[in-house]
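User:
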Amino acid sequence: MKEHPIAFDAESVRGTIDGIKTQTRRIIPQRILDNDRCEVLPEENNIPHFFHATDCPDCCEYACGGYFFEEHPYTKGDRLWVKEALRPSASGVAVYAADGTPVMVDGESFAWRWKSHRLWSTFMPRVAARITLDVVRVRVERIQDITLDEANAEGGAGEAIVARWFRERWDSLNANRGYGWDKNPPVRVIQFRLVP
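Assistant: Predicted structure:
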């Protein structure tokens, strides 16, 4: 079992804690797609298979161009620790930006070096993580392949609005980086379970 960090914004943190969010989608970087191989992750055993782009089966045509296992950090059985934004409380100790809960490490308030770090999740140390996830399944698909049930598993609520909610949320996080909904980029779908 390997352990990896994964960044979540405040909405994703709250959804995960509440048990609403059980999936996340991550863009497959262009540098991987620019290569000449692709990978299929079979559902039954999660073992990668590689194909040359010229022999790529229909089921992974969107991943052809190179989806390398070495650059695929999440596999079934791995653990993820969630990096989330911290901010200072009135007394100067760290709280989680998502809900204002104090950060406790070994039973004591966590004193963060506010002047030497930004308040972004990128800088959150492992010792301050309150959310750990077990990876249940990983697969590759295009972003527009998401179903209504999966959009709900991303943290949506309510059938009438969930499809629009997910598209708007996806674009707010990814469109300015060139991976908007309309581009239909290939993504890793990571299904997870919250570790108590």
